[in-house]
Amino acid sequence: MRKKIPRSSLPPLVLTLDAGGTNFVFAAVRNGDLVGEPVTLPAMADDLEACLDQITGGLQELHNLNGREASAISIGFPGPADYKAGIIGNCNNLPAFRDGVALGPYLESHFDLPVFMRNDADLFAYGEALAGLLPEMNKALEENNSAMRYRNLLGLTLGTGLGAGIVLDGRMLEGDNSSAAEIWAVRSKLHRDSPVEEEVSIRALRRVYAEIARMPIEEAPDPAVIAAIARHQQKGHSAGAREAYRRFGEALGDAVANALTLIDGLVVIGGGLSANADLFMPAVLSELNAQFQPREGARSPRTLVRALNLDDETDRRSFLAYKTLDITVPRSERRVTYDPMKRTGIGVSKLGASKAVAVGAYHIAAQRIAATAPATTTTAS
Hints:
By secondary structure, this protein is α/β, with parallel strands linked by helices. The protein folds into 2 domains: 13-119 and 354-372, Nucleotidyltransferase, domain 5; 133-350, ATPase, nucleotide binding domain (Nucleotidyltransferase, domain 5, 2-Layer Sandwich). Helices cover 36% and strands 21% of the residues. The protein contains 10 helices and 18 strands. The protein has helices at 48-65, 103-111, 120-131, 133-143, 202-213, 223-230, 238-263, 277-288, 313-320, 353-372, and strands at residues 13-19, 23-30, 33-34, 39-42, 72-77, 81-82, 87-88, 115-119, 152-158, 162-168, 171-172, 266-270, 291-292, 300-301, 306-309, 325-328, 335-338, 343-348. The strands form 5 sheets. Strands 1, 2, 3, 4, 5 and 8 form a 6-stranded mixed beta sheet that branches. Strands 11-10-9-12-18-15 form a 6-stranded mixed beta sheet, with helices on both faces. α3 runs parallel beside α4 (133-143) and α6 packs across α7 (238-263). The protein is globular.
């Protein structure tokens, strides 16, 4: 499903789409920067024809606003999907795409442009690795005269569902079946027969609040209202609201701890629910920094790294303050230094999920465009 890529002396203009279960966010991106304001439209997640109209309408609006100069379309879509073929499968949060929809080929035909598709959470993590949390923290480490640099990143999107992406040493991890980093399917600590997404999602917060407040779930407020109730900014069952976010954080922290044992990198969170990180982050950190109590022997740490909240001033200083020990090399007079404390940091995206997805989507398209560009040669005079 590849159309001829238009050539230009300028960096390519790419139309991007961050497809969420609630909203579609469209952006035009050139050289990694947004051109103008994004366009947001409701997803129409239950109606395929209406959903396709939203997608083509949003892309067409940006295409027209930018003089129809786009070189490609790059889309972030939740799985399951065959991203290389451009086919979206039975997506839980977008039921309109049940039984498989060839979205990529359709858009290529409609716009006569090449279309690139990846998992939306993968692109979020990639955007944060290129222009978000990862370079931000490495710059801060450099400014604090630390030799430590981070190369790996786990990105989490919190909203209608739980998405995740992994960047290892600058490369986005996709997996052989385009199914890497599907953290939503990790077993929940709180209910062992359920995936963690059932505890870390909008519906989970509403369900727990409804249970504690003893109301029908259909009457439960949305997460923003639950957060306001938890902060005593609005009337309601404040203890139930706080407990809903605490359980959310406990389940999320357990899943992140499992992932960090394999990834060993920084963690960034985004998506609509990240706005309420102050309500669930303490439980996340409690899980990450907990200890196992084995049946025999001493306690051992839940993870081999100490987790610090990068949005807390005290924790951030601890993360940046690499304190080295000076030790002697055995059987010599030579001395070396090292920092014995392994650590990771978890922080809320400053780019925002949709912008991070757009940045990641742009770079995927730009790389493919560059890879297919004809080689240039020069002749010596």
